[in-house]
Amino acid sequence: MSLQKDEKRKYRIKYAVAFIVLIIIEVLIALYVHDNFVRPYIGDVLVVIVLYSAIRVIIPEKYVLMPLYLFVFAAGVEFLQYFKLVQALGLQNNTFFRIILGSTFDWMDILCYGVGCVILGVYEWIVRNRKRCQVTVTK
């Protein structure tokens, strides 16, 4: 499905706003929430949604498999933590890379990424079906 220029701009703005809001939420969680649920689980669910929003700013067209691609990417980064990539690259003292790449492997993180991607898949499905219903009604 090809989007018109104005429609692409509208989607880009919508996803840029979502990205900014979500990244602020993620930073606030990282700085101020020190619990055993929101920070470790909700933060990981949100991270794939943040990535999705960033990608949709660049690529406004819908890709049905985007949530799956994001899951594979996030799980891949998590598995790199299992193999201690940060230490292998000698970046263990660099806070930025420790945060971006992570330093501790956890199966629960992969589960949280999966939950975030399922949420994205449901969102994509709802938006796609709502558009179909609107097209059908206007014909």
TrEMBL record:
Domain of life: Bacteria
Keywords attached to this entry: Membrane, Transmembrane, Transmembrane helix
Coiled coil: none
Presence of the UniProt keyword Ion transport in the record: no
Segments passing through the bilayer: 12-34, 40-59, 66-83, 95-123
Leader peptide range in chain numbering: none
InterPro entries recorded: DUF2809 (IPR021257)
Keyword Ribosomal protein (UniProt): no
Name the record gives this protein: DUF2809 domain-containing protein
Annotated organism of origin: Lachnoclostridium phytofermentans (strain ATCC 700394 / DSM 18823 / ISDg) (Clostridium phytofermentans)
Lineage of the species this protein comes from: Bacteria, Bacillati, Bacillota, Clostridia, Lachnospirales
